[in-house]
Every structure is written in structure tokens, then in C-alpha cells.
Please model this.
Amino acid sequence: DQQVKQNSPSLSVQEGRISILNCDYTNSMFDYFLWYKKYPAEGPTFLISISSIKDKNEDGRFTVFLNKSAKHLSLHIVPSQPGDSAVYFCAASATGVTNAGKSTFGDGTTLTVKP
Amino acid sequence: NAGVTQTPKFQVLKTGQSMTLQCAQDMNHNSMYWYRQDPGMGLRLIYYSASEGTTDKGEVPNGYNVSRLNKREFSLRLESAAPSQTSVYFCASSDSGVGTGELFFGEGSRLTVL
Model:
């Protein structure tokens, strides 16, 4: 029973266009969500997060949208750059920021941005 | 700052052998974690330590033990390695409840059990 699902294993977009990565969750207790980015042979790095009291959070080119009723969140990258090519993990916490380190992770989506 | 440092980066073991993965962080974080990542899958929590002197099981603790040696160091031990433990292991730390609560990860340790 996978509680956090990233149904698209891969996504390819052209440089300058928008990348949209999706994540669905089943546990209604999740109240805090994070996105991590991972390059090959490196550890994941934090990208952006959102609390369940919000429906949008923006940081530069990255925006995360949360639809609680649909148990769905998405990460938008605009404009996409070749350096954004990486694996993106969605993660969810049922105890807010306090225990965000114990998040449940999705399987990841590999984003390829073509020049 | 080095952040989170893991050793070794690569290790090959035979079934039944034991080994310890070492992890140290220099960010003065209270919480530390061990995750594993199998091919095509997300990260799964093995054990975590919310603060110095405490450890707790995560999602997949069987076959592992941990020690929070001090605030900086958190080790993961495989007592009798099995092929199912072939994976990439990530140590992470966080300043729980502060800011975004994000995890800071090490570069990973790739373990192969034959």
C-alpha cells in the first residue's frame, strides 16, 4: 500500500517550457509536503515545501500546488533549464514540520530538460 | 562545512558478513536518519534518532541496528548481511521543527551483498 505515488516515472520537456511533476497521496493525515531533487551519485537536496494550510508556495522558478480534496500536489518549474534534469521525489509528513524528517517518499520522477 | 559525511562510499560484502556504515554531521542538528533506496524506488526510513541518546525504528528496520554515538554521529550496522540488503544507503540530519524541517543528506553508500 503505497501512500505517496508519483505515477510518471519520467518526463521530458524542452528548455524554456514548463515542467509539471505530479504526486498523489492516500493518507489523509499527511499535513506537510516536501520536494527533493537528486542528481546521480549525490544525495537528495531539498527544493520546496508546503503546509496543508496553504494551497500554493512559490520560490523563484519553483511553485508547488496542493489540492487537499483531491489529495494531489504538483511541482511546476518555469522556465525549465537543462540543469533541472534530475530525479524529483515527493515526500509527505503526518506530523507537520516537527517530524518532516520521517517523511514517506514517492518513487520519484526523472525529469529530462532538452536544450 | 562538510554537511553530512558517510563512509564508506562503496562496499561489497558476502552473505553473512557484518559491517557498519558511519555517518557524521557538522550542522549541530538534533535529529539523524538512515534511509535506503532500491532501484526505481523512493527512500525508505530504516531507523532514526530524534535526539542524542534516543533511537527508533522506521519503516524497514529488520536486519539493522543503529547507534547514536553522540550528537554528531549516527552509525548503521548490518550484523549478518543478506542479498536483500543490497541498496544505496543515505544518512541524513535535520533540525526538527525549525524552518522547513528539511533533510540534509549525505552522498550515499552503495552496498552490494553477494
DSSP finds no helices and eleven strands in chain B. The longest strand of chain B covers residues 87-94. Chain B has a mean pLDDT of 94.
